[in-house]
## 1
Amino acid sequence: MQHHLESENTSLEQLANYDPLTKLMNRRSMDIYLRDAIERAEQKGEMLCIIMTDIDDFKKINDTYGHAAGDIVLEEVSGIILEDVRDEDCVCRWGGEEILILIRYAQDTAANVAQRICKDIAASRIDIGEEKIAITMTLGVTQYRENDSVDTIVERADRSMYKGKKNGKNQVVCDFTVRKSKFSV
């Protein structure tokens, strides 16, 4: 009986905290991690960066291949992102085809992670029926600034991402200057 209750509690926790399609954290769960990370940044000076991602032309994928294909793309993209981040990074499905990543390191590290994700997504081919389709992703990166709230830091990452969308997609836009010597594509 005890084992059954523990198993049920684990299942309920999974349902409450993770997106069933992508297996990424859901937005509600990420909000807790973001608040904690901001508090640690304020009190202990720990580093904190946010990467906001969006699959380019996702509506076109759904319109061309159907929503089931869109689900496959979301699952595949989520898997690639999870392979490209470290265990201590937090990844969530923020909404629709947007994925938010919390990096607890300096901006150069976050920029490198974002570049790796962008490159790996662009190099992938996803099986949709008899076809293999190419997809790309645009990413916006920002670092915690004094007195940031969850809303302000996420909004800044979102603005950077949309700047990349307007400038041609399939790119990383940072709202800070990346030291070229440490930045590798």
Note: The chain is about 50% helix and 20% strand.
## 2
Amino acid sequence: VEEGSRLVQEVLETTPNMMCLMNTEIDQFNYLNREFCEFFGMQSDELIHLCPTFFRGRLYPNDRNIFTDHEKKITSADDSTVVESDFRIVNHQGIWRWVGWRSIVFQRNRDGQPKLVLHVGQDITTLKETEEKLRFLSIHDQLTGLYNRLYFEEEMSRLDRGRIFPISTIMTDVDNLKEMNDTYGHAQGDELLKLISGILRSSFRAEDVVARIGGDEFAALLPGTDESTAQKIITRIEGKIDAHNTRNPQFKLSLSIGFETSTRGESLTDALQKADTKMYASKMQKREMQNSYK
């Protein structure tokens, strides 16, 4: 029995996961393994003295409700149920780490309520960061960093079903990109697209959806934006383009822009098409003016 007990103790102390046994009746730690203590940079007796209140106080503020819900679920869980949650908590170095937290009822009191609960935590920060990178890549254009067409269409569908109106839709097309690629090469054309995306990104609000939806086409959804405000944003974009061209006469930018404002009940798909038609008309007008000067 003693040998078996020592073996169990060794396994608990050498596991790479955080482990603790908590008495929920008195809100007290009964046991903490080495990994748990090293995470917080304290000895076991120090942490036991501080109680689980210390642990809760180290939670990321926006994740505290996750842990509160986790504890509530334990009270109604049966003996075979593993309660699972992911949250952030600060370690002894002051660094926020993602932890995958798994809990199971280890012992109950006479009334059948959880008394001892076993918690096992695993640092999943790298996994979370990888998931976030993959999510970012799935909804963003890799060249410009703006949203991609798929995300733009999903947001258009979501806003179409929502209640935030009016919504203005802006379509933008880069003028003479083909000529730029033919003359200076595609690498220079890519730099031009990045430059324009930066101007667009800085011209809109955080809640606006700005995307590259084609090779040289950009679009934006502006929830809660009327015609007057949309026109001001377009004027802002044009002002930044003019400022760039004044500073860089050898590398001028030109955009054709069209927009449409939708009210409740009007389709954003139709608005996008109307904005595209206006944008194309603007592009044709520029070409006619350029030809008249030749």
Note: The chain has a mean pLDDT of 91.
## 3
Amino acid sequence: YGLISSTLKTYLPDRTFHVRLPSVPRKIRRQLPSPEQVYQAVKGTRIELAVLLAMWLSFTESEIRGLTKSKSIDGDYITIREVMVVVDRQDVIKEMAKNENRNRRHRMPGRIKELVDEVEGDVIVPLSPSMLLKDLKKCLRAANLPEISFHDLRHINASVMAMLRIPDVYAQERGGWKSDHIMKNVYTEIFSEERERVDGIIDGYFEKFV
């Protein structure tokens, strides 16, 4: 419809068409395990850090795989500067995420900072997408939890922020969503003092069981 409407506007600018598109059926989401259940399942494994980065800080798989100590870590803060994607079965580093909203900076919670400091080498999570998913499913099966995708960890993060009643503007900024519509359905200025308060609320929730 977008293509057709653009064409009509170009070639028939004076004509008006009244079109009613069918409503998009609401997707029924399956039940996701709780953050604490997921954490207990992966605690002490090689994917603990990757899972916390996704579930706690809402980083995507490509963002996590692009993190390095030399470029991403600045004291107690971690910043998305590069992403690593797979192209023709080869890892490719891109300097910028797919949209500027994704280039964000988070304060590192204590447990995540501990795990980052323990990493040997520059790459923070030197695991392929298949390794991450395989390990995650293995951990969840061992804990008798339903299998989820690695991306579902971001859905858990969004659900936690909704449960904690984090204002949309801060949830959107933390998760790197382009709009609140994307944040709510596919999952203002940001004042630093208020953002730190929001970070504290979210960190306090996770730190209860980490």
Note: Strands lie at 73-74, 77-79, 83-87, 90-94, 105-107.
